[in-house]
Amino acid sequence: MKDKIRQTEAKALSDIKAVAGQREGLESLRIKLLGRKGEISELFKGLSAVAPEDKAEVGKLLNELKNSVTITIEEALGALSTKPSGAKNRIDVTLPGTPSRLGSSHPITQTIDRISEIFIGLGFRVVEGPEIETERYNFEALNIPLEHPSRDAFDTFYLESLGGKHLLRSHTSPVQARFMEKNKPPFSIIVPGKVYRPDATDASHSFMFHQVEGLCVGKDIHFSDLKGCLETFAKEMFGSSTRMRLRPSFFPFTEPSAEVDISCIICGGASGEKRCSVCGGKGWLEILGAGMVNPKVFEKVGYDPQKITGFAFGMGVERIAMLKYGINDIRMFYENDERFLRQF
Amino acid sequence: MRISYNWLKEYVDLKESAEALSETLMSAGLPTESIENIGADKVLEVEVTANRPDWLSYIGVAREVAAITGRKLKMPPVKKSEARSQRSEIKVKIEDKALCQKYTARIIRNVKVGDSPAWLKTRIEAMGLRPVNNIVDITNFCLFETGEPMHAFDLDKISGGEVLIRKAKKGEKITAIDGVERTLEDSMLIIADSSKPIAIAGIMGGFSTEVNLSTKNILLEAAYFEPISIRRTSRKLALSSDSSYRFERRVDISNVSYSSDRATGLICQIASGEASGLIDIGQKEAKKKPVVLRYSKLDSVLGHKIPSVKAKKILTDLGLKLKASSKDKISLETPGFRHDLKEEIDLIEEVARVYGYSKIPSTIPLIVAQEERISSDMAVLKKIRAAFTGLGFDEIITYSLLSKKFIGSAALPAEETVSVANPLSIEQEAMRPSLMPGMLGAVLWNINRRSRDLKLFEIGHVYGKSGSDFTERQYLGACVTGEESNWAGGSRNLSFFDLKGAVEAFISSLGIKDVSFANAADRRFSDASCASIELAGEAIGVIGEVDANILKNFDIKSPVYACEICLDKIGPYVSTKKKFETLPKYPSVSRDISIVADKDTPNRNIMAVIRASAGTVLKEVNLVDKYSGKQIPDGKISLTYRIEYQNPSKTLEEKEVLEVHTKVLSALLSELGAKLR
What we know:
The complex is a heterodimer. By secondary structure, chain A is of the alpha+beta class. Chain A has helices at about 1-20, 25-35, 40-45, 50-80, 105-120, 135-140, 175-180, 225-240, 295-300, 315-325, 330-335, 340; strands at about 125, 130-135, 165-170, 185-195, 210-220, 245-250, 255-265, 285-295, 310-315. In chain A, the strands form two sheets. Chain A has a seven-stranded mixed beta sheet. In chain A, helix 1 runs parallel beside helix 4, helix 2 packs antiparallel against helix 4 and helix 5 (about 105-120) packs across helix 8. Chain B is α+β, with helices and mostly antiparallel strands. In chain B, strands 18, 22, 23, 24, 25, 26, 27 and 28 form an eight-stranded mixed beta sheet that branches. Chain B is elongated and about 125 Å long. Classes of the chains: A alpha+beta, B alpha+beta. At the A-B interface, helix 5, strand 1, strand 4, strand 5 and helix 8 of A face helix 2, helix 6, helix 9, helix 11 and helix 12 of B.
């Protein structure tokens, strides 16, 4: 009897294993083994014929057999039931998700944020200033004499007079003087904001645009520091392979002054690539103006230029955004066409 | 300024191509805009900055090339003028010595006015000018060659035998060689004979004394005029010329006589004139103070050690004269053509420029830590932008300058706006008093491009007047319009409440709790849906459905809901400090209550009754359903509120919940006359 039980168990377990993946096979095995007339029930019936001294042991073995077969079949069935029962109730996973669109901040805002982040990383602080300005801050404090040809580069909108003479700032540089009047060095600031110039509007000119101004002032600030900061900026903004060059130039409020170019972000400045439409085959793109703060600017705010040095720079945000995103018409920034805005 | 490659070669050897030359000039600070092929010549259009008028001449540019390449400058040889002979037949007098510090005149007799020789015509044409006659062409040639503008008068048309350099009399008139008669003001410097103005000094000669084919004798003028005076007059008359361009940038006073000699030589040679001596009057040149350069300052400004020998050589090559030299510093006299060199920093720039910016290393400055990297105002703007974009709004940026008509079409008082004194067009004549017009403009633009649903916001300044001052405040504007549709939820029109929800969300993101909305009237919004937005009783903005007439003005056909909020007013309420509150230990119980109330019962009143009657166990109350329809009588509305009860110190028992809920219900019935639904 004991042998028979063992054989039955071995056979049952191997049969179950053989049909483990098939529900029908498992069901018929259950009936064959555990049904009222199944093999195991038949074995139980034979218990009465076992000698009384063996009855307890054989009974225990039979129960173990029944349990192990039952559990094994249940487990096999359980494993089957966790899989989908069929393709009938399957959802169409290609249907669109419930619409929940994020809005976009304006590409100009995004560009200002990116520029700010880079300079914040270098230790700069972001400050702002008014758009309605006086000649004093927009010109005189920046060493731009009112009646001088150097002012020609700064065509300016004037406002109706309410007694004084007010204008719309033509660059963000007035904030330099405003900040320096109220703060002592050392400091490093950047100033994003709107500026205005009476330029006829076309694909590359707008009477309103944005600038970011930078100013770093302290006891030991050098031209080499200006180069280092701007190089970091250029590489972070336009990619680590970007090269930068400084060309001597003139701004009344800085000296030495420089125009800053980066290697063309399209053709990479590959020499001889005459067809590049972005740099016109020049290989370089002008992106900002910079220089060491002119000692006269320091004198006007009461700093001692023998003790204090600093650098300043200013860049057009639209220009940077147009280069970065490949936008070829500045007017698109102010049309606010959703199809444009949603690309950023 | 146009620079002909072939012409420039006259003054300095050029071994390099025009393209290579333009690179050299660019690295010295004189960039080329374009290079034009003219026959066998190439003409560079160079951009001369305001500090370098010496580059407005061929000799000036050649001098720079010579200095930076170590080549020799070849000055055109001139026959030095004979001693002055004021005793000649013309009397010259400077009446205004402040505006004219030097005036030279020379009589050249028996000139043969006619066509210029071919070589001269080529030069004049390379500058983009049309040759006129040999005398005019020679003065123009010399202007470009030496940088000194000169003028030739027809001597026989100067009346009274005298030339006066004086201010014009008010109302005096002159017809210049452009044929236009201009009325002069008494601030303007002119050249006059005994009876009339014969030139607007430094700007343009007069028609009556113009040199033409019948001219026999000429008076050649070369002078130094005060830049500011030339600039003012040129601006007032809206008249500029190659001559005024140079005078207002300051010519080299020590170059005046040389230039006159050079032009005289050419006139005698080409037009076979006979020159008399130079009448040369005016002030003696003031001696320039030497400029000192300390090598230590040079190194500290640049952050790089430049050998002192190198610095000294760069400066002397540029034409500065060494006056004194020691281990630590040098003292130099600057040449007349470089009046931009006055201070030590000017010399530092010269050294850096010629040494090469590219040879100065890159370093990162030691920046001292600052209190705040981003001001709290800007942090607030960042949060507002994050809230709105998170809610599906797109940020727009519209023009701050608009036409008054456009501003008026948004029912804003255009006459009170800030006017621009010098707009280029009426589109820029006024500063926006509100973000609304620009926003509606953007709505129209997108509707015309078949946009179905729009959610837009803008952050920007609006401008106004207050007494004798202008005001400039930071505003937020937002609007929604159109129909939102999707396959899962069907379609629905965006409403007042979509916008209100967004406003509530952004305000709450700033840690502000007590925002409220109250019925309000505003010309820009419909009377039916317009509210003022209030913080602690202070109105900070307005929200509503844009008035139908305004929409008609803008040709917008679907309703637009808009709001405008003064962010400067929100500032004081923003709370960035956050403090953790212990999570409740005991569960809350939620019960709905459905009532039928008068249609015009404000939600705020119902909420107030619920809050007051529920007392301390009330945790939260929210409107979850609003219905009017078949089962609801006319004039009534069905409202369902979900009320959450909680006791922070124990688990609420069913009995207690029932008790307070019943109390709330009876308060609603008795105080508002509502009915249980």
